[in-house]
Amino acid sequence: MTVTNMTRLHPLMLAGTGSDVGKSILATALCRIFRQDGFHPAPFKAQNMALNSYATPEGLEIGRAQAVQAEAAGIPCHTDMNPLLLKPSSDRTSQVVLNGRPIGNRDAYDYFRREGRDVLRQAVHAAYDRLAARYNPVVMEGAGSIAEINLRDSDLVNMPMARYAGADVILVGDIDRGGVFASVYGSILLQKPEDRARIKGIIINKFRGDLRLFEQGRSMLEDLCHVPVLGVIPYMDIQIDEEDSVDLRNKHFQSAQGKVNVAVVLLRHLSNFTDFNTLERDERVHLYYTNNIEELEKADIILLPGTKSTLSDLYELRRNGVAQAIQRASRRGATVFGICGGYQMMGREVCDPDGVEGDITHLPGLGLLPVTTTITGEKVTRQVEFCFRDASTLCRGYEIHMGRTCLADEDGARTLNIFPDGTSEGCCLGERCMGTYIHGILDNRSVIDALLAPHAARLDSSAALDYEAFKNEQYDKLAAHVRAHLNMPLLYKILQNND
């Protein structure tokens, strides 16, 4: 079957047998492959639950995964790609972001009941329609498992969304976690007949070992499910920004000679951990995540990351002794750099008079910067350009925060960043104590160089990373890897079949 970039392809949904089976990374790969093949693809996930978000060019908020997928597709990200974002603020509640703007906090039980779902369903359908009118194909992503039959009536993102879009569904199973036959077969069998007929292929993901060992298993799955296995994808060691922070604890402390040791404080409600990906990949740096006091005190640089719940995490840092360890490290000469919620924590106090975050209305901060923060209900979301610490190099980043931080008039303290209109942001005391609201600030080479400069004596390399080139190289490697193990001719045939 001949495929040209003028061919109209069906929308495609990557659905999962469970969470973390690799739907997001495969969607990223397909966005890149379709772009390479001359199409104009766009990603779509009706509802995403993640703390790792991103600001669109319009200053609105979406899940980071869809921003990454858009980048792989070579297009600007837009809220239509992720119209509904849930940002957990506790074990039972989440902030609901609709079309890029927060509309309030919802209890999980109330949210997943049927009442009020029609309004949200209409919103995600409208977003999809706008996207589908502009792009070909739309690469859709499901959420979690498609076999959660107890949530079927309230589901906005899996099979009901595929049904609305008329999408061909490819089911993704994770063989690395075990039970792939039962999870794939059971996921298909539990569907309603009309939804079962929509599942046109299976991808087995995260395979380790000799692929020939699964040849019989592949045939057995096809015989059981009456659905072709489109590919068995070997485990990929390719560095693409992740949606979830599930693997951060595996990035352990290990003092590295000739490198700057950088500790990211592992907060309970840590958000936007991708702020540190560029720094982590710099050859001059050994970066790890920890809330261990001894490991923090051995760091040259301590990074306090963003958080969905500043006061709750600040309370925990004081309770477990991490706050005091950071203060001691600062006194002995370590650099402490806070981003967003971490910046708020570094000040003298954080106040929440209206209870925006919860029951804690006031806590003293770490006292490292002469700033005070008041949490407000209004969220600031925007992409920004700025100059860092009096330098002339123009840098880029984005803001997503709730709160207003004021700088006290104190000797030695100054603002950290200057915007093109002359306004300022952030705070610094010397070269080793600073805070900012700007996410992505460490994606700028000039900022990383300035951050590492006070610790230059430890460096044995001057290598620095061109992050834009690195990301594009990784997208191309990912696409080549998936293309090599996926039956693309059969996939294109499925996406054009009108039977």
Count every beta strand, where a strand is a DSSP E run of 2 or more residues.
28
CATH superfamily of the largest domain: P-loop containing nucleotide triphosphate hydrolases
Q: What can be said about the biggest beta sheet?
A: 7 strands, mixed
Distance between the ends? 15 Å
Instruction: Say what the CATH topology of the largest domain is.
Output: Rossmann fold
Low-confidence stretches: none
At CATH's second level, what is the architecture of the largest domain? 3-Layer(aba) Sandwich
**Strand order, sheet with most strands:** 15-13-16-18-27-26-23
Shape verdict: globular
Instruction: Determine the fraction of residues in helical runs and give it as a percent range.
Output: 25-40%
What would you say about this model in short?
This protein has 499 residues and is of the alpha/beta class.
Question: Would you give an account of this structure?
Answer:
Helices cover 30% and strands 28% of the residues. It has 499 residues and is of the alpha/beta class. Helix 1 (23-36) runs parallel beside helix 2 (64-73), helix 1 (23-36) crosses helix 15 and helix 6 runs parallel beside helix 8. 47% of the residues are buried.
Key traits:
7-stranded mixed sheet, alpha/beta, Rossmann fold, 499 residues
